[in-house]
């Protein structure tokens, strides 16, 4: 029976092949017989050798990982609009691989017997299915097939470079032979590309690159009104659509060029279908932060940034595997994560109806503010804006709330979960004018209770993620002055910092979670990382050191400021980095935040290393307890 | 009754709770239970005077929603309210061959069976339906009910930092869970959003101690 949901399903499907080849009416009939399936993260859709289901699947939301079996590497990742589980449609045998929800996922199950007639009738549908089937069956090089079926992706696997198909840009920036050099340069500027194709009847007849413009126009050899046909490089070097990354690299080196033109049959006598730049090749290799950074800055859609973030995680994994110092690793990864946030904000600002009425700053709070957020965790952020005249207050607040709501959604779309405590700029409590913010902070400092300590713990680790730095400096100065004037605040902060749960019990055994979903896991965040971060914050605040929010850096600064304790502080810095590395590795391993560690997975050596950091924590807490003893302060 | 159950019942009585009312009809587990997730569009919020224009109901069983088994029934009503028509967009004559209230209700009752009803602000929908049943000389619904507005609150963090609201709208749930608000304010569209929200809520509650179907009714 046709109804609102089947319409909704049909509307989704019509955007993706092979459904896009079908008539709307047929699609609606099929949609009426679909089952919507919810899969929680890590649950199995079908297992290896399982008898085939009577349907195949389309991912509506989330992602599904295809593996040869439970323990092998991911062969393919299907996300929104991708189809999988086609075996029953084509072959009458059990599944040859396993499909498992990589994240929380909603699937559409399409009954084979309903769909088969359409596949047989429409050639395009059948061909597409067969091609898809071939590409995600047991095929060691299946990754190389992904580009054509699953849209643009950042390939992160470097092992099969010479077999991977390269991803070229399908949007061709072109002009005609009668375009002037000036116009061509304007198009290139607008589209942010380094080369433009000169075409005639869809056939490529030449190419103009940055280099041509530099050598021929900027030198004054030709005026800027010269026609494209006179300054272009011709003939164009063309290649067919199917080439591997290595082939592309070789081709560029061989002819000493930075752009390849992709045509239907690989010759200049067929239609141009794409362009491949050196940059595209570098992105495909995906192991270079500079390239990733450039890709982020070019991204115009949230979805694109989400894909790039997969590349960032891969880079992180590589750094950890190669034992690159944690300081450097976290710097680079944080830099890339910050760039993603900036880009999201940039995109949102462009889409707003009007410019921000006054200056504002977007603050990253908590671990992101401390540049310690290597994995995707929750978002914690706040927005502060310049004070405005009273009559404008309401309208200004409304504008920034709307802005923040969209930014929060954008960050969610690229993979940052919403903060469960609503500590986000879209919450009116965290979208404040500078003076409102000062009032709030002043209230915490002068009326300190347990909650105020908790709030200051998270808020005081802010760092500027986007926008105006004067506002933030102004706020920081205010906080230091206010804390100095109200020394009792330290006592509260210290007692808060000392309250963290102890990592080990009486017999130096690890204290594990007692119940809940993480029973018998070790909570590395609450029991080891937080005590160090909390202590560093109190100490650095007491020295009025501005703009260092990273915990390890804070300890290094403290070692400098207090030579007597420098050894302990350096040990703390080291421990913190070691713990962060533990957490990050665990997180990558389990595709989560890494907060809970299963001790069984640790080696004896790792356990000893972990325990040695706990000793440092105890010593540090002792120092604080004595230094900020109430009687010593007042 | 064996000894342990007796003690259990005794303890529950001490706490002022009755065990029997809960156990009744909610044996079994979440995976196999048939839930019917529903929403009604009405001419207004007055139980006595307003009427149901449309019931949208979908079956949710074993984390699956078979579209074919869903029910979307528009009901012919004499009473009409221009103000609410702007929200749900159901015009008086826009759907041909609408069943009358009795026929619509019968279709719904057959569809419902003894499933557990899930809705957002369930009390409203159930009250509207029960009033309609009463008008047509039919007995009230006896089904167990769950309310996503209530269950959602149980997924929220217990933290002094989080200011909880008294009540959360379906829009708020859709935003939080990233569910498209397409077809919002149609009975079926809202039922679908409610169903996905319900699934996501279950997923969150699963992390809690002692999670079970029975537990859902105690929240």
From TrEMBL, chain A:
One of its GO terms (molecular function) is [protein-PII] uridylyltransferase activity. Pfam families: CBS, cNMP_binding, DUF294, DUF294_C. SMART domains: CBS. This is CBS domain-containing protein. It comes from Flavobacterium franklandianum. The keyword Isomerase does not apply. It comes from the Bacteria. PANTHER family: CBS DOMAIN-CONTAINING PROTEIN, CBS DOMAIN-CONTAINING PROTEIN CBSX3, MITOCHONDRIAL. CDD domains: CAP_ED (cd00038), NT_GlnE_GlnD_like (cd05401). Residues 168-224, 232-291 form the CBS domain. Keywords: CBS domain. PROSITE patterns: CBS, CNMP_BINDING_3. InterPro entries: CBS_dom, CBS_dom_sf, cNMP-bd_dom, cNMP-bd_dom_sf, Diverse_CBS-Domain, DUF294_put_nucleoTrafse_sb-bd, GlnD_Uridyltrans_N, RmlC-like_jellyroll.
TrEMBL record, chain B:
It comes from the Bacteria. It holds the Pfam family RNase_T. One of its GO terms (cellular component) is cytosol. This is 3'-5' exonuclease. InterPro entries: DnaQ (IPR006054), Ribonucl_H (IPR013520), RNaseH-like_sf (IPR012337), RNaseH_sf (IPR036397). PANTHER family: DNA POLYMERASE III SUBUNIT EPSILON (PTHR30231:SF41). DNA polymerase III is a complex, multichain enzyme responsible for most of the replicative synthesis in bacteria. The epsilon subunit contain the editing function and is a proofreading 3'-5' exonuclease. Keywords: Exonuclease, Hydrolase, Nuclease. Coiled coil: none annotated. The lineage of its organism: Bacteria, Pseudomonadati, Bacteroidota, Flavobacteriia, Flavobacteriales. One of its GO terms (molecular function) is 3'-5' exonuclease activity. One of its GO terms (biological process) is DNA replication proofreading. It comes from Flavobacterium franklandianum. Residues 34-207 form the Exonuclease domain. DNA polymerase III contains a core (composed of alpha, epsilon and theta chains) that associates with a tau subunit. This core dimerizes to form the POLIII' complex. PolIII' associates with the gamma complex (composed of gamma, delta, delta', psi and chi chains) and with the beta chain to form the complete DNA polymerase III complex.
């Amino acid at each position: 029976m046709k109804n609102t949901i089947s319409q909704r399903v049909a509307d989704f499907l019509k955007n993706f092949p092979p459904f896009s080849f079908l008539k709307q009416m047929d699609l609606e009939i099929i949609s009426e017989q679909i089952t919507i399936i919810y899969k929680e993260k890590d649950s199995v859709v079908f297992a290896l050798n399982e008898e085939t289901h009577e349907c195949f699947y389309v991912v509506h939301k989330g992602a599904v990982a295809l593996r040869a079996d439970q323990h092998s590497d991911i062969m393919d990742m299907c996300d929104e609009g991708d189809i999988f589980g086609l075996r029953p449609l084509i072959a009458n045998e059990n599944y040859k691989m396993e499909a498992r929800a990589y994240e929380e996922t909603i699937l559409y199950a399409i009954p084979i017997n309903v769909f088969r007639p359409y596949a047989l009738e429409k050639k395009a549908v059948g061909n597409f299915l067969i091609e898809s089937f071939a590409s995600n069956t047991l095929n060691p090089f299946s990754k190389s097939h992904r580009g054509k079926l699953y849209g643009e992706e950042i390939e992160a696997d470097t092992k099969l470079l010479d077999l991977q198909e390269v991803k070229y840009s399908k949007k061709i920036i072109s002009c005609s032979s009668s375009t002037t050099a000036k116009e061509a340069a304007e198009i290139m500027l607008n589209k942010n590309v380094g080369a433009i194709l000169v075409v005639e009847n869809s056939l490529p007849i030449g190419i103009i690159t940055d280099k041509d413009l530099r050598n021929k126009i900027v030198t004054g050899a030709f005026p800027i009104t010269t026609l494209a046909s006179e300054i272009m490089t011709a003939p164009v070097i063309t290649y067919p659509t199917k080439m591997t990354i290595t082939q592309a690299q070789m081709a560029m080196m061989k002819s000493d060029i930075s752009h390849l033109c992709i045509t239907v049959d690989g010759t200049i006598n067929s239609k141009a279908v794409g362009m491949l730049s050196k940059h595209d090749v570098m992105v495909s290799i995906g192991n270079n932060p500079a390239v990733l950074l450039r890709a982020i800055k070019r991204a115009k859609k949230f979805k694109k940034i989400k894909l790039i973030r997969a590349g960032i995680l891969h880079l992180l994994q590589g750094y950890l595997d190669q034992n690159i110092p944690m300081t450097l690793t976290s710097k680079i990864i944080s830099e890339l994560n910050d760039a993603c946030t900036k880009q999201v904000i940039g995109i949102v600002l462009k889409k707003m109806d009007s410019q921000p009425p006054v200056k504002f700053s977007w603050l990253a709070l908590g671990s992101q503010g401390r540049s310690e957020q290597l994995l995707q965790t929750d978002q914690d952020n706040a927005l502060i804006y310049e004070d405005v005249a009273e009559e404008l207050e309401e309208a200004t607040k409304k504008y920034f709330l709307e802005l923040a709501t969209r930014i929060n959604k954008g960050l969610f779309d690229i993979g940052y979960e919403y903060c469960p405590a609503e500590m986000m700029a879209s919450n009116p409590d965290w979208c404040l004018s500078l003076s409102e913010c000062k009032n709030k902070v002043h209230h915490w400092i002068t009326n300190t209770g347990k909650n105020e300590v908790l709030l200051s713990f998270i808020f005081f680790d802010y760092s500027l993620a986007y926008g105006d730095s004067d506002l933030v400096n102004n706020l920081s100065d205010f906080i230091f002055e206010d804390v100095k004037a109200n020394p009792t605040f330290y006592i509260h902060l210290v007692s808060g910092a000392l309250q963290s749960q102890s990592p080990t019990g009486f017999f130096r055994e690890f204290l594990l979670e007692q119940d809940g979903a993480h029973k018998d896991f070790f909570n590395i965040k609450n029991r080891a990382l937080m005590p160090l971060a909390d202590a560093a914050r109190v100490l650095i605040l007491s020295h009025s050191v501005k703009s260092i929010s990273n915990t390890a850096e804070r300890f290094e600064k403290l070692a400098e400021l207090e030579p007597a304790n420098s050894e302990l502080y350096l040990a703390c810095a080291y421990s913190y980095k070691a713990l962060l590395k533990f957490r990050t590795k665990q997180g990558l391993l389990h595709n989560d935040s890494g907060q809970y560690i299963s001790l069984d997975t640790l080696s004896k050596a790792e356990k000893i290393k972990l325990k040695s950091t706990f000793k440092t924590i105890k010593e540090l807490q002792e120092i604080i307890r004595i230094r900020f003893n109430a009687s010593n302060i007042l | 009754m064996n000894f342990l159950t007796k003690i259990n019942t005794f303890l529950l009585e001490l706490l002022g709770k009755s065990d029997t009312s809960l156990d009744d009809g909610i044996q079994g587990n979440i995976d196999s239970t048939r839930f019917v997730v529903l929403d009604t569009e009405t001419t207004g919020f007055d139980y006595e005077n307003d009427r149901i224009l449309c019931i949208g109901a979908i079956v949710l069983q074993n984390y699956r929603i078979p579209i074919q088994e869903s029910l979307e029934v528009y009901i012919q009503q004499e009473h009409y309210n221009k103000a609410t028509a702007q929200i749900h967009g159901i015009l008086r004559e826009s759907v041909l061959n609408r069943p009358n209230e009795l026929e619509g209700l019968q279709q719904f009752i057959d569809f419902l069976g003894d499933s557990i009803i899930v809705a957002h602000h369930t009390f409203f929908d159930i009250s509207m339906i029960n009033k309609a049943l009463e008008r047509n000389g039919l007995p009230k619904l006896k089904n167990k009910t769950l309310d996503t507005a209530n269950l959602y609150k149980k997924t929220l963090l217990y933290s002094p930092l989080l200011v909880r609201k008294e009540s959360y709208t379906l829009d708020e749930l859709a935003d939080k869970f990233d569910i498209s608000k397409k077809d919002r304010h149609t009975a079926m569209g809202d039922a679908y959003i409610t169903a996905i929200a319900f699934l996501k809520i279950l997923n969150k509650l699963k992390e809690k101690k002692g999670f079970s179907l029975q537990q859902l009714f105690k929240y």
